[in-house]
Amino acid sequence: MSDNTFRIIHTVTNLALDANASMEVYLSRPENNHETNPYQLWRIVPISDTYRIIHNQTGLALDANANRSVYLSSIEHNRETNPYQRWRFR
């Protein structure tokens, strides 16, 4: 991990937020849950009063839709102006 990347860890399971080349986002498998897994590194980028969470390996943003699905954005929809890629921390 560098100073600008983070692993996002689920507090109950202690598993990291992970993603794959198919743009799926999930909690890591226990055997793949380690600091050196590049698919578990994320960048948190401020955009006004919100944040984009960028998957460091692919450069794609954490995206969501009205059906409560969470996934990596497609290349054509991966942009700062996409409101479905904005997140808040409370």
If you had to describe this structure to a student in words, what would you say it looks like?
It is built from no helices and six strands. With 90 residues, it is an all-beta fold. The strands form three sheets. A two-stranded antiparallel sheet has the order 1-2. The protein has a two-stranded antiparallel ribbon with strand order 3-4. A two-stranded antiparallel ribbon has the order 5-6. Strand 3 and strand 4 form a beta hairpin.
Key features?
two-stranded antiparallel sheet; 90 residues; mainly beta
Beta content: 25-35%
Widest sheet, order of strands: 1-2
The gross shape turns out to be: globular
- SS summary, helix count: 0
Q: What is the typical, i.e. mean, pLDDT? A: 94
Low-confidence spans: none
Number of strands: 6
Q: Order of helices and strands, N to C?
A: EEEEEE
Evaluate the radius of gyration.
13 Å
Q: SS-based structural class?
A: mainly beta
- Distance N terminus to C terminus? 24 Å
Largest sheet: 2 strands, antiparallel
Helix-residue proportion: under 10%
